Amino acid sequence: MADEYENNRWSAHLEYLKVAIALSTATLAVAAAVYSDPAKVPTDSSKNVLFACAAAVLVTLIMSVFAIISVANRVADKTAKASTFLITFWSGLSFFALIVSGALLLYFFGLRTLSVTSGPQQAIDAGLAIVEKQGIKANNETVTLASLEAKADKYYLTFKVEPTAKTAAVVYDPKTNSVISLSLKP
Description:
Blueprint: H1 2-9, H2 11-36, H3 46-76, H4 84-114, H5 120-133, E1 142-151, E2 154-162, E3 166-173, E4 178-185
Antiparallel strand pairs: 1-2, 2-3, 3-4
């Protein structure tokens, strides 16, 4: 009876720790996917919040693993030597890190949702505006987007001016929301 009570006593900890480990592992996989492609990494200050969130998730994972090891040691070694303090200490740190990472993730979503960010459409609009402003396009010509690439923290756009077959290459910086380079090729 005492053994059953002791095993059930830690079942809530085990269930929480299994969920925390699964969530942490999945969130770290998503963070790795985001950071592996430079085009997906935010260029504004929210990237720092996302990095801090990934770090807090990693701490959650580490603390959860330590806690689950402590629970396993307690269940396997039913003597008084196996301390319950370690279980509650590591579980508590894991839970605190999970709350911090959740708050950071919500803050990241808030920054990305509420802030006006410069994306591909702003780059296209600015590129078209500069091409028309510089007089590259005559009245009877049309300007179309030929290509758009996101490299590192800039957008590289190529516009075709028809029917003359001229091309205009534009480099757009989303951090400053401005065109930093314009070149014309006949």
